From TrEMBL:
It comes from the Bacteria. Its main location: cytoplasm. InterPro entries: PRC_barrel-like_sf, PRC_RimM, RimM, RimM_N, RimM_N_sf, Transl_B-barrel_sf. It is found in: Cytoplasm. HAMAP family: Ribosome_mat_RimM (MF_00014). The keyword Cell membrane does not apply. Residues 4-85 form the RimM N-terminal domain. This is Ribosome maturation factor RimM. Residues 99-165 form the Ribosome maturation factor RimM PRC barrel domain. It comes from Streptomonospora wellingtoniae. The PRC barrel domain binds ribosomal protein uS19. Belongs to the RimM family. Pfam families: PRC_RimM, RimM.
Amino acid sequence: MRLVVGRIGRAHGIRGDVAVDVRTDDPESRFAPGSLLQTDSAGTGPLTVASARRHSGRLLVRFTGVGDRTAAEGLRGTTLLVESEDLPPVEDPDEFSDHELIGLRAETAEGAAVGTVADVLHNAQDVLVITRADGPEVLVPFVRDLVPEVDTGSGRLVIDPPPGLLELGG
């Protein structure tokens, strides 16, 4: 699965630097010199990071082979991606990356099928978007009281919903 780590914005200066809208929690390793990033259009990439630095609160990145402002402007709007298999595992057993949760079967504590995790929303509280077999989506806050068990190895998670939660939206 390919994960978005950034989006290229406008060119900065005349030497090929671009501003990157960072979409990862680990920009230091994702944009480290030598890192290879896939792009949303195959004709643009992959791109290799030559250098990265912070400037006025923004991340400025220079890619190998992009040596001037014109070439940098040609990258504007490009989405930068990494393969989820290339990411190191999360060391905290209670933390999960979105790609580890998406696709898991959701079941109640009694073993009744609820649906499949389709997405993870990151607002004030992380929320699992579970698509039910009968169609409607159910939103379940991703907190231990409601999701007491996550077993990525077996491809499932257990939810303990309060009364009425699974009936909402359907």
